[in-house]
Amino acid sequence: MTIYYSLTFLLLAAEMATFCILVAPLPYTVKKRLFAFLSESKIVAKIAYALKISFIFVAILFVDALQRMFRVTAESDMAKSSKHGAVQDIRTDTGIAARKFYAQRNTYLTGFCLFLSLVLTRTFYIILDLIHTQEEYAKLKKQTTGATGATGDQSKEIASLKKQLEEAKNKTRDYDILKKQAAQNNAEYDRLATELNDLSGKKSNKRVD
């Protein structure tokens, strides 16, 4: 394996390890700090930029390996058709099979590297959006809880005011009853006083006679 395909294999292994870390069931706080570091760190941004450039070269290698695989496959088919019914050369067939195998290996290696880069990028942004959504949900839930608590305090205050109003109404009703009773007592007192005065006047007149 040449050096650039070896580097491609190392890049593919790094992508697989990174993907396993991203989808691992980590605690929410750990995952939040990890993704905040990956999305805000300048060092990670520079590494991501370098990886984008390297993926351009991987794409070129993929196109080259794909063309080579098609060419080797065509040569293998031509060799099989030309040697149909003749004595086969084992060395030639082995060389063609080896070239075909290497071409297919390089094609799959670079193709999976490019495919996993797309999957890794999309997975990263999906999880990042999920974390932001969970943060917004937590904020809204906290605000809703605070509003519910404030509503509960207002309900208690309203109930207290209603109770005080009912007590004031009861006191007013009792005052009206006492006022009415006092008026009746005063009228009765006036009546009795008038009758007493009348009786006293009659007695005085009798004595004078």
TrEMBL record:
<dbReference type="Pfam" id="PF18035">
    <property type="entry name" value="Bap31_Bap29_C"/>
</dbReference>
<feature type="coiled-coil region">
    <location>
        <begin position="151"/>
        <end position="195"/>
    </location>
</feature>
<dbReference type="InterPro" id="IPR008417">
    <property type="entry name" value="BAP29/BAP31"/>
</dbReference>
<keyword id="KW-0812">Transmembrane</keyword>
<feature type="transmembrane region" description="Helical">
    <location>
        <begin position="108"/>
        <end position="128"/>
    </location>
</feature>
<dbReference type="GO" id="GO:0006886">
    <property type="term" value="P:intracellular protein transport"/>
</dbReference>
<keyword id="KW-0472">Membrane</keyword>
<keyword id="KW-0256">Endoplasmic reticulum</keyword>
<protein>
    <recommendedName>
        <fullName>Endoplasmic reticulum transmembrane protein</fullName>
    </recommendedName>
</protein>
<comment type="similarity">
    <text>Belongs to the BCAP29/BCAP31 family.</text>
</comment>
<comment type="function">
    <text>May play a role in anterograde transport of membrane proteins from the endoplasmic reticulum to the Golgi.</text>
</comment>
<dbReference type="InterPro" id="IPR041672">
    <property type="entry name" value="Bap31/Bap29_C"/>
</dbReference>
<dbReference type="GO" id="GO:0005789">
    <property type="term" value="C:endoplasmic reticulum membrane"/>
</dbReference>
<dbReference type="InterPro" id="IPR040463">
    <property type="entry name" value="BAP29/BAP31_N"/>
</dbReference>
<dbReference type="GO" id="GO:0006888">
    <property type="term" value="P:endoplasmic reticulum to Golgi vesicle-mediated transport"/>
</dbReference>
<keyword id="KW-1133">Transmembrane helix</keyword>
<keyword id="KW-0931">ER-Golgi transport</keyword>
<feature type="transmembrane region" description="Helical">
    <location>
        <begin position="7"/>
        <end position="27"/>
    </location>
</feature>
<feature type="domain" description="Bap31/Bap29 cytoplasmic coiled-coil">
    <location>
        <begin position="156"/>
        <end position="204"/>
    </location>
</feature>
<keyword id="KW-0813">Transport</keyword>
<dbReference type="Pfam" id="PF05529">
    <property type="entry name" value="Bap31"/>
</dbReference>
<dbReference type="GO" id="GO:0070973">
    <property type="term" value="P:protein localization to endoplasmic reticulum exit site"/>
</dbReference>
<feature type="domain" description="BAP29/BAP31 transmembrane">
    <location>
        <begin position="1"/>
        <end position="139"/>
    </location>
</feature>
<keyword id="KW-0653">Protein transport</keyword>
<feature type="transmembrane region" description="Helical">
    <location>
        <begin position="47"/>
        <end position="66"/>
    </location>
</feature>
<keyword id="KW-0175">Coiled coil</keyword>
